[in-house]
TrEMBL record:
Keywords associated with the record: Membrane, Transmembrane, Transmembrane helix
Annotated Pfam families: DUF2243
UniProt keyword Methyltransferase, yes or no: no
Claim: DNA-binding is one of the keywords in the record: no
Name of the protein in question: DUF2243 domain-containing protein
Organism: Rubellimicrobium roseum
InterPro entries cross-referenced by the UniProt entry: DUF2243_membrane
Chain ranges passing through the membrane: 12-33, 53-73, 85-102, 128-146, 158-175
Length: 256
């Protein structure tokens, strides 16, 4: 039986739905279709290394929000206040659609950092279509389901476990190793480019592309030696573990 703050579980379900919407957007549009990256239209952020870096940070943020939502729902479940049934599904859909609404208004139109299809002849049409199908429609359905109520709040253990597996699965896809012989490495600011170049040569890594200060490099290196880049000052290495998939090679290649 719910004790206090029965609405808290609803809020956290919405947060989880919001994160799932971000995962859907990032995995489908950034990685699979590659219609845009997070900062596709930001002047000075067009090189491939920084684009995939910011995509990786975006997925890390969604992972954090998903974990926060699951934690809040678990706490609500301990008090018997976790929404269940149709109400839970509705709240998740509200959060999922809410992500696309926020992304459209903030990222596409106010900030202009990207559009759904940056190469489209009529980008606004794609923005509106995407917002309608994946934003407004899920929010309308979610609102209807949430108002129905249905089963009273409870602990929701099995449902929470299923949602946790879904979030981990989506995050695992976003962080999967790239299926490519090329590796993206991000080095911390202030490091000597000459030392970075010497370290790469010592590891037998051939530089394919590099930022002006070698802070971001794309190298052809034996996959078994990718881990050694961490010992040479790299902060994140695509293809060598978390978050490898976010920093994998893009089909855009050096043309970005």
């Amino acid at each position: 039986m719910p004790t206090s703050r029965p609405w808290s579980g609803s809020i956290w379900a919405g947060v989880l739905g919001f994160a799932l919407g971000g995962f859907f957007d990032g995995i489908l549009l950034h990685q699979i279709l590659q219609w845009h990256h997070l900062l596709s239209l930001v002047p000075g952020a067009g090189d491939m290394g920084r684009q995939v870096l910011w995509d990786g940070l975006f997925h890390a943020l969604m992972y954090g929000l998903a974990a926060l939502g699951l934690w809040g729902m678990w706490r609500a479940g301990r008090r018997g206040a976790m929404p269940t049934g149709a109400r839970l599904g509705g709240l998740l859909l509200l959060g999922f659609g809410g992500w696309h609404l926020v992304d459209s208004v903030l990222s596409h139109w106010m900030l202009g950092i990207h559009r759904i299809r940056v190469d489209a002849a009529y980008p606004l049409a794609w923005d509106l279509l995407w917002l309608g199908v994946f934003g407004l429609a899920p929010m309308a359905l979610g609102w209807a389901l949430a108002r129905r109520g249905g089963a009273p709040p409870g602990r929701g253990g099995p449902m929470l476990a299923a949602l946790a597996l879904l979030a981990v699965g989506l995050g695992g896809w976003a962080l999967r190793p790239a299926e490519t012989p090329l590796t993206v490495a991000v080095f911390g600011p202030g490091q000597d480019p000459r030392r970075i170049e010497a370290d790469l040569a010592a590891l037998g890594a051939r530089i394919v592309w590099a930022g002006p200060d070698l802070d971001v490099v794309v190298v052809d290196i034996d996959p078994a030696r990718r881990w050694n880049l961490y010992g040479r000052g790299a902060w994140v290495v695509g293809g060598a573990g978390l978050p490898a998939g976010c920093l994998g090679w893009s089909r855009d290649g050096l043309s970005a």
